[in-house]
Amino acid sequence: xxxxxxxxxxxxxxxxxxxxxxxxxxxxxxxxxxxxxxxxxxxxxxxxxxxxxxxxxxxxxxxxxxxxxxxxxxxxxxxxxx
Length: 82
What we know:
Elements: H1 2-13, E1 17-21, E2 25-30, H2 36-45, H3 50-60, E3 64-70, E4 76-81
């Protein structure tokens, strides 16, 4: 579907990445999950000082996910996903 390709390319240009893609649907993601193992190790080696940064990242960092689907009339339907 050309309309889906166009919408996906526009989203990619604004910082989204494709998680999965089929003929009439695409799931796009923006953001990165926090690497908790790395932050736990850094917190231990920095005498718990890194824990402040880790807590801030865990609260602020969000992963957004959206599913784009082409309906029967050729319109894009966007649904936010967890």
